[in-house]
Amino acid sequence: MTPWIYRSLWSLLALLMLLTLAATTFGALKLPLDLLWHGDSVLRQIWFTIRLPRVLLALTIGGSLALAGCVMQGLFRNPLADPGLPGISSGAALAVALWVVLPFSLPLVLMLYAPMLAAFLGSLAVTMVIFVLSQRHENSLSRLLLVGIAINALCGAAVGVLSWLSNDAQLRQLSLWGMGSLGQAQWSTLLVTASVMLPTVTIIWRLAKPLNLLQLGDEEAHYLGVNVQQIQRRLLLCSALLVAAAVAVSGVIGFIGLVVPHLLRMWLGADHRAVIPGSVLVGAILLLVADTLARTLVAPAEMPVGLLTSLMGAPWFLWMIFRRGGQHG
Description:
79% of the residues lie in helices and 0% in strands. By secondary structure, it is mostly helical. Helix 4 packs parallel to helix 7 and helix 9 (187-206) runs antiparallel to helix 12 (228-250). The chain starts with a helix and ends with a helix. It is built from 15 helices and no strands. This is Iron ABC transporter permease. It is a multi-pass membrane protein. InterPro entries: ABC_BtuC-like (IPR037294), ABC_transptr_permease_BtuC (IPR000522).
């Protein structure tokens, strides 16, 4: 990587730290840092137990979704690939909905990880179906999007049936998942999400060079010494795990995995040694800003953060489609 790329990544990290510090002070209750330092213990308790874990959870989930999108775009070699469009997020959401509505019994130790395990199995099942279909047909992008539409429709219908069968508490929980929300942030959920994300990010970072070689094509990568199928399986598992962790905690938050990696490739180039950490940083910044706006725009009420990310991401997606269509035309 060039010195300019290193400086860009360090600048993103500095911006993330400043925004993180600022975001902890905004919300329905203003918590200025000087007031926290010299104020009473109640304000410090609110800041530490409510505001700080939510901000850190936004960073974790935003980075996870952006990195999952980065991996998907690298595997399919297409900037329109995204965990939400092919139905991976919907598969994870359906699995979590099954866990919420149907009566399952697990040991107490596993209860905290159970929604994440269910989301992982749902996202992994959809990921494997999509990947197999994309490898067996030359027109993989069109088939990918068509299969994604079908999977999203099927999962949406299934979640609708489960919502109809659910009680009031379960229905409210499913509704929040459908729109995406970080309102349930706690230190325990942050710990679970971070314990999944950090090792997964490390694995993906170590696979940045093989992922670069995969951009040349499977055959060329094989001749350059890459175990193509093994690398693809590892990256698929990591992407599914990141989506599962995010969906299990916050619900379906769209477009971060689509917009952020594509933006980073336009800015930093195609080298995944730069795109991977850049995606984590920019994804964290984007969701942090969106969640801060969700907490402040209609205070003391709160908007679902998934609505804001969709409002920001949908125009970008349309621009990408028309831009690619103009280039091909």
